[in-house]
Design a protein that fits this description.
8-stranded parallel beta sheet; lyase (chains A, B); 2 domains; D-ser_dehydrat-like_dom (chains A, B); homodimer; 386 residues; TIM Barrel
C-alpha cells in the first residue's frame, strides 16, 4: 500500500497530508520505561504487537528484536514469524477454522500458543492436535475482572478444560488473563488494586491447575495500565501490554502517561475556515483519525484529538471537535476563554489520537521522525487484514 | 491486500472470518431505486464512490459503468480514472499541495473539478492554473445547512471567489453543496424540507453568480437522504449521493431505507460464551466493524450492529453490544424479553453495520454474493489511502 506519490518527500513539512507520524525516540523511551518496571519486578515482558502492527517497530520493542510477543490476528503471527519473531501468543479465543493456520505456523518452527475458555474449544484443539500430529500449545483464559472472555476463577470448568488439553493430546501451557477494565480506573490506587486483582486471579487459577496435577508453566497477565501500576508480580511468568509503546489520549486520561509521551500523531493541512463559528477545517477526518472516541467516557473528553503545532506542542485549547470521512473540524474546547490560533490556509497541524491502535489501523505506513526533527527517517508499513 | 489464505474458499460458510460480505443484488436494487427517482425528476446522478471504494462496484453504480462520479481522495480519483471513469469531482476543499496531482489528472484526460470556499483557495487554484497552463475546473462550495464547509448564501464572498476564478485563469464551473445535516432529520417532512433548502440555496447562489456576469453551468447538490426525498430539482444539474449504494443502520434509522435493503454485513464466528451474562463472543471487533456508532444519537441505538443469521435474517433482539479490537460481544438489547438464540461455538453470523463507509474502509475486499446464495461470486478489492 506504499503510495508512490509520497516516496520523494524528505520532510514532514512537504509530504502530502494526511499521514501518520511516529516519533521513534518517544517509542523507545516508552518501551524502556515499562521494561525498567517489569525488570525491577523480575518478570519478562511479552509486548502485544496489535498496536504497532509493524515489523520495523517490533524490532525496537522486542527483546533482541525477536520475542516473545503477543498478536491479535493470525496475519500478524505470519508476518512477525516470517520476520524472525518465533515466540507468539495469539490472544483471541481460538475459532475452529483457524487451527489449520496455527498448525502451519507450528510446523514452520513458530512456538505459537492459542487461548480458550470452553470445553468445545479444548475439544477442537485436541482434535486438531491429534489429526495433525502436532501438540498445539494452549493457555486457558481467565476472566479476572468481568471485562470480556474467560473462565471465572473458582469455576471447576478450569480443571475440566485443563484435563482435556493435558490428557487428550494438546499441550496445556497454563493461564492467561487481561484486565481490560483497568482502562476505566480513575486513580493510582484503583490501578494498583486492579493489577493485584489480575495477578491474584491468574496465580490462583495456575495453583488450582497444579493442585489437580496439571501443568501451568505459564502465568501470563497484562494490560497497559496494570503493567505500569503493578507492585508485585509473584507467581506471574510474563506481562503483556500493547498501547504502552505509542500511548494515546485514553492512556493520558487514565493517568498512565503524559500527553508528551504520545509517540503518534496525524498530520493534517488547513483547507478552510468557518470564522463566524470559530471552526478551522482540515483534510483529516475519521478515515485518518478513526472513529474512536475513547475519551468520551473519561473526565476530560478530548473529542477527536488534541491539536498540536508541527513541533508537537499542543495549541492551547484547540481540539478536533468533529469529523466526516475526509474532513476534520478544529475549534476551541467548550468553555475555553482562549483566542482561536491563527492557522492560515495551507498550514499544518499534528493531532494526538484517542486510541493509538485504532488510528494506526487506518494507515498504510508510519512516517518516522526523531525528537526535534522534521526529517523523515523511514516509512514503516503497517499490517492489515486477518 | 488480497489474502492468499482466502482465495480458495468457494462459500461464505467456508471462508475464514471475519470478512466483508456484499450482496450484489441489493446493491443493484438500491442503485436502480435512486436512479428511477432522479430520472423522474429529470436530473442525472453523480454517485459518490467514497462508500464502495471499488472499481468493480463502481461499474455497477455508474452510468455506462464510466461516470460521472464523485470522490473523496485523489487516490480514489487516480484509481477510478485509470479504470475508465474520467468525469470526477474531488469533493473535499482543495489543499494547495494537492493541486499538482489534480493537474496531472487533467493532463491525463480526466475532467476533474476541485471545490473551494475561500479567496485563498481561489488564488491558489488560479496560480496553479497559470503555472501549469491548465485551467483547473472549480466549483464554489455553499453552506446550505450549517453542517460543515462552504460560503454562506448571501455572502458577497461568493462573487469575489467567482471573479478570481473566472477572470484570472481557472475555470469557474458553478456551485456545489452537501446537506450533511439531513442525516439528523427525523421525519419525511423534515427530509423533504431539507432537500428543498439544499436545492434553493444552490440555485440561488448559481443565480447570484450569473447575475454578476459569471458562469455557473453546474449546480450540484446531494446527500443520500436529500437525494431520496427531493420532490423538485428545478435549477439543479446533478445529484450526488454515496451511502445509498450499500445503505446501513444509520440510514435505516433516518427512515431512508429498510434493514432488508442493507447490502453490507460482516461475517463472524462464535468463539465463546459468557452464559451467566448472556454474552456470545465473536471474532469480529472494531477492526472489522469500525468504531462508528452513528446510531447512538438516533431513536434506536443499534450499538455496534444488528446480528443476522447467515441468510441475512435478523436474529430477533440480538445486537453487537460492545467491541474490542478483535472481539465482539453479542447480547439481547437492553429490556428485551426474548431468549438468547442458540449459537454454538463455531457457528457464523452476519452483522449489519452502523455506517457502511466506515466498515468498508476496514477491509481489503468485498466478498460478493447474490440473493439467497452462499456461493462466493467474486472478491472486489477496496481502495485505501490518499
Amino acid at each position: 500500500m506504499k503510495d508512490k506519490n509520497q516516496i520523494s518527500a524528505a520532510s514532514i513539512l512537504e509530504r502530502e497530508t494526511p499521514f501518520l507520524l511516529l516519533n521513534r525516540d518517544k517509542l523507545e523511551r516508552n518501551v524502556a520505561r515499562l521494561r525498567e518496571h517489569t525488570d525491577r519486578l523480575g518478570v519478562p515482558l511479552r509486548p502485544h504487537l496489535k498496536t504497532v502492527k509493524s515489523v520495523e517497530a517490533a524490532r525496537l520493542i522486542l527483546t533482541n528484536g525477536k520475542g516473545p510477543a503477543t498478536v491479535s490476528t493470525l496475519k500478524e503471527a505470519e508476518v512477525f514469524s516470517a520476520a524472525g519473531c518465533k515466540d507468539l501468543i495469539y490472544a483471541v479465543g481460538i475459532a475452529p477454522q483457524k487451527l489449520a493456520r496455527v498448525i502451519a505456523l507450528l510446523n514452520n518452527g513458530t512456538d505459537i500458543s492459542v487461548i480458550l475458555d470452553s470445553l468445545e474449544q479444548a475439544r477442537a484443539v485436541v482434535e486438531a492436535s491429534r489429526q495433525s500430529g502436532v501438540k498445539i500449545p494452549a493457555l486457558i483464559e481467565i476472566d479476572s475482572d468481568g471485562h470480556r472472555s474467560g473462565v471465572v476463577p473458582g469455576d471447576n470448568l478450569l480443571i475440566e478444560i485443563g484435563k482435556i488439553l493435558h490428557n487428550e493430546g494438546a499441550e496445556l501451557r497454563g493461564i492467561i488473563t487481561h484486565a481490560g477494565e483497568s482502562y476505566h480506573c480513575k486513580s493510582m490506587q484503583a490501578h494498583q488494586a486492579m493489577a493485584e486483582k489480575e495477578r491474584a486471579a491468574a496465580v490462583a487459577c495456575a495453583e488450582a491447575l497444579r493442585a489437580a496435577g496439571l501443568p501451568s508453566p505459564v502465568v501470563s497477565v497484562g494490560s497497559t495500565p496494570t503493567a505500569h501500576f503493578s507492585q508485585d508480580l509473584t507467581g506471574v511468568t510474563e506481562v503483556r501490554a500493547g498501547v504502552f509503546t505509542l500511548f494515546d489520549l485514553v492512556m493520558t486520561g487514565a493517568g498512565v502517561c503524559h500527553t508528551a509521551d504520545i509517540a503518534l500523531s496525524v498530520v493534517a493541512t488547513v483547507i478552510g475556515h468557518q470564522r463566524q463559528k470559530g471552526w478551522i477545517m482540515v483534510d483529516a477526518g475519521w478515515m485518518a483519525m478513526s472513529r474512536d472516541r475513547g475519551t468520551a467516557s473519561q473526565a476530560v473528553d478530548q473529542r477527536y484529538g488534541i491539536v498540536c503545532d508541527m513541533s508537537g506542542e499542543p495549541l492551547g485549547d484547540l481540539v478536533m471537535i468533529d469529523v466526516n470521512q475526509e474532513h476534520g473540524i478544529l475549534a476551541l474546547r467548550a468553555g475555553s476563554q482562549q483566542t482561536l490560533p491563527d492557522l492560515p490556509y495551507g498550514s499544518r497541524v499534528r493531532i494526538l489520537p484517542n486510541h493509538a491502535c485504532a488510528t494506526v489501523s487506518q494507515h498504510a505506513e508510519f512516517v518516522v521522525v526523531r525528537d526535534r526533527s522534521e526529517k523523515i527517517e523511514a516509512q514503516w508499513p503497517i499490517i492489515h487484514g486477518w
